Amino acid sequence: MSTSRTQAELYPAAGEVSRDAAGSTFAEVDDSDRIVPAIEFRDVVLAFDDRVILDKLSFKVMKGETKIILGGSGGGKSTIIKLVLGLLKPDEGRILVDGEDITDFNEVQMMIVRKKIGMVFQEGALFDSLSVYDNVAYRLHEQGRAEDEVEPEVRRMLRFVNLEDAIDKMPAELSGGMRRRVGIARALIGDPKIVLFDEPTAGLDPPTARTICELAMKLRDLEDVSSIFVTHEMNNLDYLCSEYAVVNEEGQVVFEREGERLCLINSKVMMMLEGKIIFSGTDETLRKAENPYIHKFLRGH
Amino acid sequence: MNFVTRSIFELQETTVMTARAVAGVFKGPRYISETITQMDVIGVGSLTIILLTGFFTGGVLTLQTFPTLAAYSAQGQTGKLVAISLIRELGPVLCALMVTGRVGSAIAAELGSMTASQQIDAMRALGTDPIKKLVAPRLIALIVTLPLLTVVADVMGIGGGGIAATTLYGLSINEFVTSVREGITGNDVIGGVIKPICFAIIIASVACYKGLTTEGGTVGVGRSTTRAVVTASIVVIVADFFLARGLQYLLGMPVN
Question: Which one has a higher pLDDT value, B110 or B2?
Fold first, then answer.
């Protein structure tokens, strides 16, 4: 896992920070494929019987970008994630992952696409009958990888989420926050370049929620991971849109607020209401939006 | 969707799921250790209830039929009646119903709670086909173990019937065993094994389908479990009638 990358590396192709502008401070990266969105929805429609869940939804998640999807319960946020994974199929429209149209893929083809994607479920969705080690190692075990290859990978991932001590525990012995973190470690095994978070902080205390957001920031800023972060909690938005992870001179990961050294450009916000996008942009523009629903959502009244 | 449409839809979906599970057996990855674990859970785990059910069913058959046969001076035929009843009908059906209650409910509840807690979605997201990983091993385990459990139930039933006949009615054990041997034909045994294989497919398919289609959280798990047991039990009994009729023709058993 590389830990030396910084913000400016991640977006040279997006036009905001060119490689030349980055100069010698930043490492050279191959940015030729960065113009291809990691995830793209084109006019996606999904309805269950007469109830329209997604209504002509179109958006892109660029490489290295975190798309925060806000909205009330039942607004179709989690459905988006299920569509990306192919757990549901749209009625109309196209879905592209890494430039590849997956809309008509069958289950066998989707299995290959899913190898590129890590998914963090709302409650962790850990396998109750397996230990933490076996949960995290699940994907590698399924691929038939040798145990001496699997163990160092599992330990590396559990270190990433600060849970190496819990390696032999069963899911029932873990707290809610620990379950989510194990869920993140399981999602990250195999180093997927796309990670989907489905309300990963729901029901957690603020410090634990902050820890989960920090992990998402580390992935975004240090691992160049593209992600969709579904949430309805405003503090998640504050963390993800105003802070970034860097490695300091002692080699430790620290979180700095934007404005001190750079402005965050790789976190975008999208707000949904009844299957439609009512806002798409940055957190700053979200806070200035005139829409009464957005006002109510941000202020709680 | 009305009841008829829903039933046809569920039948179609269950059949497709079962066909995919069977196809999965011939294509990798194969979950052999999972299948062996399921055989242990289903087969060895159900042994006690099957032993008890078989033994006492045989006993009560003797208890109820001996006096009637004695009225026609045919008490020597008790062994034949007990053996044929058990091997052709009561063994397979009672075993299937007991296994539906014990194993079908457990499968539906386990898969249902996995569905409700998004573990099935997680499995798919991690690149595993839940039908290969969860349905196929349970289906194979039931197909292997239910006929064996049925044979055990038949043997225990005949034993129970024999003990009841000798201890309660003073019939000699030799007379009972001779009557049993005269009564059973090879076709009875074949039919008695074909039936549990069909019942195993029914129980596994219904329980897995109901579990995997659970909706509505923990309440939904309870609902799926109940529906799995009720549906599988009814389908087993209905299928038994048609199987019995089909076997009569196929194996040349007496039809009148």
Answer: B110
CA angle B191, B195, B183 (to 5 degrees): 35
Number of H helices, E strands in chain A: 11, 12
**Beta-carbon count within 10 A of B175 CB:** 16
For the whole model, what pTM was predicted? 0.82
What is the rounded average pLDDT of the residues A118-136?
Answer: 91
Measure CA of the first residue to CA of the last residue in chain A; give whole Å.
44
| Candidate ranges A248-252, A276-280, B150-154; pick with highest mean pLDDT | B150-154
Name the residue facing B121 among A87, A139, A143 (closest C-beta). Answer: A87
Measured distance CA(A106)–CA(A244) in Å, rounded? 38
Residue B253: helix, strand or coil by DSSP? coil
Write the CB contacts of B16 (distance below 8 Å, at least 6 apart in sequence).
Answer: none
Contacting residues of B for A125, CB less than 8 Å apart: 117-119, 121-122
Q: Taking CB atoms and an 8 Å limit, are B121 and A82 in contact across chains?
A: yes
CB of A38 closer than 8 Å to CB of A228: no
Q: To probe the interface with A, which of B16, B31, B123, B126 has the most A CB atoms within 10 Å?
A: B126
Write phi, then psi, for A69 (nearest 5 degrees): -105, 115
Is the complex ipTM higher than 0.85?
Answer: no
Taking residues B90-102, what's their average pLDDT?
A: 95
- What is the average pLDDT across A257-275? 77
Half-sphere exposure of B53 (CA within 13 A, CB side): 24
Count CB neighbours of A182 within 10 A: 25
Grade residue B235 by pLDDT with cuts at 50, 70 and 90. very high
Instruction: Look at A119 and B122 and tell me if their CB atoms are within 8 Å.
Output: yes
Among B118, B119, B127, whose Cβ lies nearest the Cβ of A114?
B127
Tell me the sheet residues that pair with A196.
A119, A228
Rounded CA gap, B145 and A93, in Å? 48
Q: Which amino acid is at B221?
A: V
Strands A276-281 and A267-273, sheet pairing: antiparallel
Average pLDDT in chain A: 82
Q: Is B122 on the interface with A (CB under 8 A)?
A: yes
Interchain pair B126, A186: CB under 8 A:
yes
CB contact under 8 A, B119 and A82: no
Least confident of A59-73, A253-267, A279-293, B33-47: A253-267
Query: Do B127 and A127 count as a contact with CB atoms less than 8 A apart?
Result: no
Residues of A with CB under 8 A from a CB of B: 82, 85, 87, 107, 111, 114-115, 117, 119, 121-123, 125-128, 138-139, 142-144, 186
The residue to which tokens 């450009």 are assigned = A265
